[in-house]
Every structure is written in structure tokens, then in C-alpha cells.
Amino acid sequence: xxxxxxxxxxxxxxxxxxxxxxxxxxxxxxxxxxxxxxxxxxxxxxxxxxxxxxxxxxxxxxxxxxxxxxxxxxxxxxxxxxxxxxxxxxxxxxxxxxxxxxxxxxxxxxxxxxxxxxxxxxxxxxxxxxxxxxxxxxxxxxxxxxxxxxxxxxxxxxxxxxxxxxxxxxxxxxxxxxxxxxxxxxxxxxxxxxxxxxxxxx
Length: 202
Description:
It contains no helices and 16 strands. By secondary structure, it is mainly beta.
């Protein structure tokens, strides 16, 4: 470093947990850290930053991957303003055509069509806590890049973020011929038969 060398045994690390900003380890000499985190009452994204120190100098912090814990409690709204909005979402490419839902800088989720193979791809929400017997109203906007060619969307719900678990039909397969300037707003109601954590797949 700077024309010299470092002694790795003298490097220490400071680990900070977010979003609470708690310093969970200081002057650590190993490169691994773990801790048990209680599941919070609300949907929370956790990540860690690590700062290395050597001979009185500190590095810029490096951030870990992001992990979500806890359920979303309605009311819930997602506008996809930034890529971190995807925390907790599950993206599945079931037909393995390498086309899948992804966040766009246009502040939406989008997927490229496949001319030779039927689409079978899912964007599944994080866990949403719902109570038995309550009626939940949901709505979302959908559009096509080329509204002269119909696309089709279906919405289901399940108890885990997998394609196989998407067993409860929320929105039947619906053809879409709307543009970005005039998107189609689709509405539906959900009435769970039991209380628990549910995942909604598009």
C-alpha cells in the first residue's frame, strides 16, 4: 500500500448494523461475523457495513448484501422509486429463458417478451401479514411497450415465495393492450381464510 506493505495480522475491523446504526463489533481481527437478529414486528431491511483499520488509517466502509425480516402489514404501497424497493421480492425464471422481471430506472417492474416460448415468470412480493375474514383490496397498473400487441398477466397468492405455492387465484389471466401513458389499472379483493403470512405473485 502506497509503495509499502501491510501486516494482515494487524488489520482490525469495525462492523455496523443497519438500519439501526448499531456498532456490533469493534477491533475485530477475523473476517467473519455473525449474530442472531430477532424477527421484528414490521418489515425491515438489514445490512452491515465493514470498515478496516490499519496503522491509524481507516478504509471506506463496504456494505454487505441486504436481508429482510418481518412481514409487511397493510396498508402497503410500492412505487418502485429505486432499486432497493426490490428488497424482499422473489424473482423466478421458471421457464429458464433468461427473461425475468427486473427493476427499471423508469420506476417500474418490467420483463421482455419471448417470441418462441410461453412466458412463465414470477415477481413475488415479500411476506404480507393478513388476517382471516378481512377483505383486502389491491390494485396495480400494467402496460405494454407496444400496446398493439397484447400481453397477458395473472396474479396468484400462496404461503411461500415459490411458483408451486401460488395456488390461490387473485386475478385471472388478463390480456393487456395499454400504453405507459394510459396504463390499465387492475383491482381485486383478497379474503384470507386463515391468518398468516402471504405472498402475492405476478
